[in-house]
Amino acid sequence: MWLKTIVILEPYMKKFALVAMLCASSYVQATDSVNQEEWRQLSAENVVVMTLPHGNVYIELAPQFSPKHAERFKSLVQSGYYDDEKFYRVIDGFVAQAGPQDGSDKDKQVKALTMEDEFSVTDQFSYTLVQKNDMFAPQTGFKDGFALGHSPDEKKAWMLHCPGVIAMARGTEPDTGSSHFYITNGQAPRYLDRIMAVFGRVVHGMNHVQAIQRTAGIEGQDKIEAATFTPMVKVRMMSDLPKAEQIQLQVQNTDSQAYTKSLEERRNRSSAFFYKKPKPVLDICQTPVNTRIVKS
Amino acid sequence: MWLKTIVILEPYMKKFALVAMLCASSYVQATDSVNQEEWRQLSAENVVVMTLPHGNVYIELAPQFSPKHAERFKSLVQSGYYDDEKFYRVIDGFVAQAGPQDGSDKDKQVKALTMEDEFSVTDQFSYTLVQKNDMFAPQTGFKDGFALGHSPDEKKAWMLHCPGVIAMARGTEPDTGSSHFYITNGQAPRYLDRIMAVFGRVVHGMNHVQAIQRTAGIEGQDKIEAATFTPMVKVRMMSDLPKAEQIQLQVQNTDSQAYTKSLEERRNRSSAFFYKKPKPVLDICQTPVNTRIVKS
């Protein structure tokens, strides 16, 4: 499977793909213990299936980092709250935002949450380090496949606004988010790190997120009619779907030795394609954590 | 117009949009000289209109930075070379790549170009500085709306792989690019800076780039049939289109004082929405350079 993974990482020329395949075989790892499994099975109780008119978006929740927001979203999903609601604010290179009509009964029935913009960690906080001196965070890394920022000095960590994360929208004050959410659809808006509650990420179907109808055009463009806005046909927890509609998803185990090795390969760019070596740094938001479907 | 611009920059909550509108009025600039115009008119001779089945993509070429590649692309466009060819390699969060069938007569008829991965500059090189100590470049900034990296020590500058740039694909060797191109569709793959020839950027229609059919799924997913790949219906220079199909595009003048002020506002995040201030740094690839359509 690493063959395929590495080919996907650097896929822009067929000739190069061949080179990558030749190089990649040395990274196939033995998996001796559970901890070292290259893939992690997602729990159907923790995966949201958002059905858009053009396809399904699969989102893994992160209750380990944003417990109240993940729980709230799951609870709203299970009540059918988001069915037929629309993405009413969709900006190129920024976010697709959805929720019920502002100020409606449905909107007001949901109470505001206390912000979960970061969390406290001990000196023993363990995760897979990706980069020090990232422009926005002292350190970045992965835990359970989620991209985190980490400040050892402050003993804090936080989920990063990489493409495809889901976070709760809010008003000016921090503790005002309730049910409206956004999914980032372009270059990571990292300046939102530590002031918004990110609570999950898209693990499959990012193409469908990127295809959501934009609601705001550029100056001089014809108005985009609200009737064309993309609705959520239905939003369900995977575990609540009929068995025939469920799929088994696995995500690369970012805690594994194999994943750490792949980071080093990615950092060092040993392929001949890199006739000049780039700086040996990694933008965590441009570092793939792959997903696969397992046939049961 | 700055009102609208700044609302678009930070548009994820209606309540916040109101705050931004109130703050923004102080950034309306007088435009005393041509150099200080807030908007720059694009030349129809320098804009490519790529018609996809689902909409038009408008690309401004950058002959000032990659003269041979911009000229080659324009020449191929004018010969109808790309019409009906397909995006055959489209990867989520990476690139959409297109061109004729590998090894076909059409493919072989086009000669390889000498690489234009960076260019030499003098100590007097002038551009709008955005950030020092970007993770991949000593300095970043805009010139003519294009995102550049700059190394004063090396006296070199280069076009950055921000989302929406167009660059020539190539083989393992640097001087092998000819007609196949890619457009970046996700988080900026900055590790490709300085080893690929970027020669333009999408100024309008990035939503249509993001909606191009992916050609590679994830492991376990059904094969994506080549018949579903997105074709280019036609690709033309704007100036060669019938007048009725031409539109007049303007792009923010990144050399203007108004734009520099907007960068400072973006860096300092004075809005109350930022109840904790992010680090006062800017990811140039997440710094919008807006486009507008002018009715003639």
Structural description of this entry:
2 copies of one chain form a homodimer. Helix content of chain A is 18%, strand content 26%. The first copy, chain A, has an 8-stranded antiparallel β-sheet with strand order 4-5-12-11-13-3-2-14. In chain A, strands 6-10-9-8-7 form a 5-stranded antiparallel β-sheet, with no helix packed on it. The longest helix of chain A has 12 residues, at 67-78. In chain A, strand 2 and strand 3 (55-61) form a beta hairpin. Chain A has a single domain (24-294), classed as Cyclophilin-like (Cyclophilin, Beta Barrel), CATH 2.40.100.10. Chain A is an alpha+beta fold. In chain A, 46% of the residues are buried. In chain A, helix 1 packs antiparallel against helix 2 (14-24). Chains A, B: It is an enzyme of class 5 (isomerase). Chains A, B: This is peptidylprolyl isomerase. Chains A, B: GO terms for molecular function: peptidyl-prolyl cis-trans isomerase activity.
Short description:
Two copies of one chain form a homodimer. Chain A has helices at residues 2-9, 14-24, 67-78, 105-108, 206-210, 257-268; strands at residues 39-41, 47-52, 55-61, 86-90, 95-99, 119-120, 128-132, 139-143, 146-151, 156-159, 165-168, 181-184, 197-204, 234-237, 248-252, 291-294.
